[in-house]
Amino acid sequence: MNYTRFINSVSLARKPSPIRVLTAIALSSPPSMISMAGGNPNVKTFPIQSATLTLRNGTVIHIGEELMQQALQYSPTPGFPGLLEWVRGLQDHIHTPPLLNKKNHPGAVDILITNGSQDGIARALESMVSPKDTVLIETPSYPGTLAILKPLGCRLLPVQSDKHGMDPDHLQHILSNWKPSHALDPSSDIPKLLYCIPNGGNPTGYGLTAERKKKIYQLAREYSLLILEDDPYYYLQFSKPRIPSLLSMDEDGRVIRFDSFSKLISSGLRLGFVSGPKPIIERMQLHMQATVMHASGLSQITLLQILQGWGYEGFKQHADKVTEFYRERKNHCVAAAKKHLTGLAEWSEPSGGMFLWLKLKVPDTFKMITVKAREKDVLFVPGNAFMLDDQAPSQYVRAAYSMCTAEQMDLAFERLASLIREEQLNPS
Ligand SMILES: Cc1ncc(COP(=O)(O)O)c(CNc2cc3ccccc3n(O)c2=O)c1O
């Protein structure tokens, strides 16, 4: 695989920061090394000495002085070595990526700790996309990614989806406008990247079937695409066993996978990680070096203490508990929709995540949701926010069931029902 084709000129121009190189050398040198290189502040001037965390299960985690000094000091851009090692082991345990341990393969998997997966997606797209490029993106899609992509000025081609996720037949139909050989022609506008949210989609809550994932991967192979697998809801799949990831089938080194700790452990710690081909991860690391330098050290050390205490089995048990929490909320949400919205809206049962995607029997939801709904003390997100063309009318709204009680969801949908009836009588 020739990765240069996928890296834009800004990213290709990036060079390792000499200071960050020295930080890495200093960290990996023997105690005899005397470093007067790095402009590190002296940790003895820091007011925080240690910390103690109490988990909901009663476990007490103590971050002593030595570890706290590491947490509060500059650290390597790729991530704390211990956390990198742990998440690498998690990927092996969960996805068994074919290229995880093939160090000599050009697409050997490398990992970067990011400030949440939003940060990772931004670095990947800002390192790969040029204005002349064509990017395939499932629609509807996550507004956070649309906010990154649209300003880059590339051509965005929407790939339709349904209750089983992105439609590979529509993807094939779009790609049939090119020949696979066009990928060898630098002047061709053949698509290079495919962005998808394979499980518990945002905004739909739908997930790709295993068959569709295989078909999409085969099409990516045929047309030399790289796949951006944005998968913060992987562990929140309601069906068991979980449907395998695209990374688990990646024999070519064409999947860049974004994981997040936001939906399982904390969204405020701002930690996620990217698993992908080393040449791409290296470009993202250089991007990170020139901006935030590294993800928060205190967040990384805090997370690592929790993960090391759990181990992989404990992590999976926690993920299963969180999934059951959201399954119960999903059931309450669907029950409230059936009770109040039957005949006024359509929806399919979410297969994971934390969202219900409602198609209302009105021509456009934007003004109804952004103006009238607030007067009725209820908030949703209008469907246009998830579309490539956010000016076009949309009959959809996204409802998040993650934060509301069953009673609140019932009342919210009762209010939405009266809004729909009013809108049907007097369209805004
Ligand atoms: C598909 C997909 N990919 C990436 C991310 C980012 O997650 P990270 O790991 O925390 O950076 C997300 C997070 N989605 C949302 C976040 C959010 C934050 C504040 C307020 C509202 C928010 N709404 O509505 C969201 O959907 C996501 O759904």
UniProtKB/TrEMBL annotation:
- Name the Gene Ontology biological process terms: alpha-amino acid metabolic process
**All residue ranges annotated as the Aminotransferase class I/classII large domain in the record:** 105-416
Q: Name one GO cellular component term.
A: mitochondrial matrix
Write out the pathway annotation from the protein's UniProt entry. Answer: Amino-acid degradation; L-lysine degradation via saccharopine pathway; glutaryl-CoA from L-lysine: step 4/6
Q: Where are the transmembrane segments?
A: none
Q: SUPFAM superfamilies recorded for this chain?
A: PLP-dependent transferases (SSF53383)
Query: Recorded E.C. number(s)?
Result: 2.6.1.39, 2.6.1.4, 2.6.1.7, 2.6.1.73
For this UniProt record, give its keywords in alphabetical order, as a comma-separated list.
Answer: Aminotransferase, Pyridoxal phosphate, Transferase
* Superkingdom per UniProt: Eukaryota
Q: Which reaction does it catalyse?
A: L-leucine + glyoxylate = 4-methyl-2-oxopentanoate + glycine; 2-oxohexanoate + L-kynurenine = L-2-aminohexanoate + kynurenate + H2O; glycine + 2-oxoglutarate = glyoxylate + L-glutamate; L-kynurenine + glyoxylate = kynurenate + glycine + H2O
Question: What does the similarity note say?
Answer: Belongs to the class-I pyridoxal-phosphate-dependent aminotransferase family.
State what protein this is by name.
Answer: Kynurenine/alpha-aminoadipate aminotransferase, mitochondrial
